[in-house]
Amino acid sequence: MSSKILDYYSIEDLLTHEEKLIRDTIAEFVDTEFIPIIEEYYMKGEFPKYLIPKLGELGIFGMTLPEEYGGSGASNIAYGLAMQELERGDSALRSFASVQSALVMYPIYAFGSETQKKTYLKKLASAEIIGCFGLTEPDFGSNPAGMLTKAEKIDGGFLLNGTKMWITNGSIADISIVWAKLDNVVKGFIVDTKTKGFSAPIMKGKLSLRASITSELILQDVFVPEENILPMSNGLKTPLMCLNQARYSIAWGVIGAMLATYKSALDYSKTRIQFKKPIASFQLTQEKLVKMATEITKAQLLAFQLGKLKDMGKIKHTHISMAKRNNVEQALNIARISREIHGANGILNEYPVMRHAANLETVKTYEGTHEMHTLIIGEDLTGIPAFE
Ligand SMILES: Cc1cc2nc3c(=O)[nH]c(=O)nc-3n(C[C@H](O)[C@H](O)[C@H](O)COP(=O)(O)OP(=O)(O)OC[C@H]3O[C@@H](n4cnc5c(N)ncnc54)[C@H](O)[C@@H]3O)c2cc1C
Questions:
Q1: Catalytic annotation present for 33
Q2: Distance 369 CA to ligand 1 centre (A)
Q3: Is this structure's pTM higher than 0.90?
């Protein structure tokens, strides 16, 4: 449980009873049902699909939404803490939840019609149906404005053509939120993945986020009925607003990965004997542990205030960029230091360290690369965009 690993600045005292309850319920699930099986699934390169209904029962998906749409009106701090516990298990588990909540439920909630909300949100919350989010294309990652996927208006709906790449949960999704240009304006479409012309082959050969399903989406004359366009979607800012929700969950989630690799290093350093002493007794090892604990504490404070700003409605996308950028980079640094402390044992899957380190390479790149977040904050500080 994360709170028992490190809470150096007593953030626990700032949480409500409900926030602690949500966090501890998810922590228990991760400790008892997920951590014991993750190494096996990671090595196989599979997501443990049998756990999906349980994730729905735990109320993880869309928890900040109102009850009428399947949520529980939880605070953003509670949501962040939930993401932290999931990613303490594995980034794949948090990715699954981020996509379902932030990239599928949120766009329907924020940009969908009332009928769309009633049709999909409760089913997504309970995990009766799974969704995915198709924005990235083979030639357009950091610059999605160039996307080639097109929607054409025809009688009763639209025809979609294009290819998406690197899509989390694509191959198991019942619906896909596909972003395509209609008359040169980016619009969101709810695509039933059983529709003729839609296919989602799994991408193989990943050495990172191995326990997550990643797919291509191929759309060949896919018919989408009129009622499945997200009516309030209008331009690239719409998918970017969805990505902000997902980035928020990363800023919190990676603290879980930090805690997992820190705890492993701390425990190991107290029991590994070299030169007749535990390696924790050497000053160089202590310096490493202090650095890890300090960066975790800074990340926790950053995430906590980010959550408060979100709950107060004062959050800016640049706040999220700063927390995502910093916390992921520090999580990677901490994983690497943890590996050093474990010596050769650090490369074994008996310890969670290399798995988290490898996962975090993806987390640094997706939902806006580290460099893109640097440029976003740089523009905010200077008023000068440096993207092109
Ligand atoms: C496992 C996984 C799951 C994913 N899931 C999804 C998903 O569910 N849905 C989805 O739509 N996408 C998803 N993505 C895609 C992800 O969002 C993209 O990989 C990301 O946006 C970067 O795009 P790219 O890989 O094409 O890199 P590129 O855009 O080609 O960038 C390559 C490098 O160049 C740098 N770069 C690019 N432009 C500039 C610039 N102007 N200045 C400085 N540096 C620059 C980048 O920062 C990066 O370091 C996923 C990716 C992975 C790996």
A1: no
A2: 6
A3: yes
